[in-house]
């Protein structure tokens, strides 16, 4: 119907599960996420998780554009950064010459926990409440093990793009001009290889981002169905696997067959004798 809809809020579990899902969107926000890996939500949650992952990885700015904020107010300034008053934009060719060192990530990275900030000890988490241990004696020990397994260090803010890890033999970013012929009027383009379809453009004064893709992260590993095993050769036939011949049943001797035939012929005579006796009895009664 063309109406806008607000996507649901996320839990850390949605982020961690979305990292294992490899699926294209079908356009139905109420659709279930099928596949061999379970996902605790619908397509609306998966879409929101992918937007968060793409935004955290591809939101970049020139090095001196932002500076860290001294005031820690998460409600008014959740990113903890402010626009620098001393920022002076550089030309496109200067930014191109500096390469990735001229750009930084201005949004916090998402940790393995599915959170931007590490979980503090003693902090209640909804996931842990659902997985409470029934045994009270081992509850404290297992709780500490869960915290140690999830303990992480927060990634520094405004980290340089030059520190991004390579994707196999592929660089995480491509830096190029929009036109090699008319370089004086060209703009600078940053292309993400980790999230194909994510671009940042800079014209010497301002910069902005755009993403046109399938919400699919690049990976050096691609799934392929398992190749069936080679069929084994037929076993060579020989005397050790031949079936034994069936035992033939011998025919009955002819003498026994004749005796049986005689006995069968005598039975009707006995019946006739009984009938004659009955007839004689009836005649006596008449007399």
Automatic annotation (TrEMBL):
Pfam families from the UniProt entry: Radial_spoke
Record flagged with keyword Glycoprotein: no
A single GO BP: axoneme assembly
PANTHER family: RADIAL SPOKE HEAD 6 HOMOLOG A, RADIAL SPOKEHEAD-RELATED
Protein name per UniProt: Radial spoke head protein 6 A
Presence of keyword Cytoplasm: yes
Ranges where the record places region Disordered: 115-150, 243-287
Species in which this protein is naturally found: Araneus ventricosus
Keywords, alphabetical: Cell projection, Cilium, Cytoplasm, Cytoskeleton
Subcellular location per the Swiss-Prot or TrEMBL entry: Cytoplasm, Cytoskeleton, Cilium axoneme
Compositional bias of kind Acidic residues: 121-145
Top-level taxon in the UniProt lineage: Eukaryota
Gene Ontology cellular-component terms listed: radial spoke
InterPro entries (UniProt xref): Radial_spoke
């Amino acid at each position: 119907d063309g109406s806008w809809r607000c996507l649901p809020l996320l839990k850390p579990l949605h982020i961690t599960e979305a990292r294992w899902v490899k699926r294209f969107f079908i356009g139905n926000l109420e659709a279930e996420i099928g596949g061999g890996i379970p996902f605790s939500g619908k397509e609306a949650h998966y879409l929101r998780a992918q937007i968060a992952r793409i935004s955290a990885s591809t939101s970049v700015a020139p090095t001196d554009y932002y500076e860290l904020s001294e005031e820690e107010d998460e409600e008014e300034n959740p990113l903890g950064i402010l626009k620098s008053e001393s920022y002076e934009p550089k030309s496109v060719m200067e930014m191109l010459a500096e390469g990735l060192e001229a750009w930084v990530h201005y949004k916090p990275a998402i940790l393995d926990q599915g959170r931007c900030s590490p979980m503090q000890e003693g902090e209640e988490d909804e996931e842990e409440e659902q997985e409470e241990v029934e045994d009270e004696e081992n509850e404290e020990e297992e709780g500490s093990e869960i915290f140690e397994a999830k303990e992480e260090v927060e990634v520094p803010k405004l980290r340089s793009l030059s520190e991004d890890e390579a994707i196999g033999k592929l660089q995480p970013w491509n830096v190029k001009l929009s036109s090699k012929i008319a370089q004086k009027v060209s703009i600078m383009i940053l292309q993400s290889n980790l999230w194909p379809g994510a671009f940042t453009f800079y014209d010497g004064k301002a910069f902005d981002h755009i993403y046109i893709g399938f919400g699919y992260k690049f990976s050096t590993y691609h799934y392929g169905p398992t190749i069936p095993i080679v069929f084994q050769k037929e076993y060579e036939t020989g005397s050790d696997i031949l079936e034994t011949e069936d035992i033939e049943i011998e025919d009955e001797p002819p003498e026994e067959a004749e005796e049986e035939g005689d006995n069968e012929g005598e039975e009707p005579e006995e019946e006739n004798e009984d009938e004659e006796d009955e007839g004689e009895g009836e005649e006596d009664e008449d007399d």
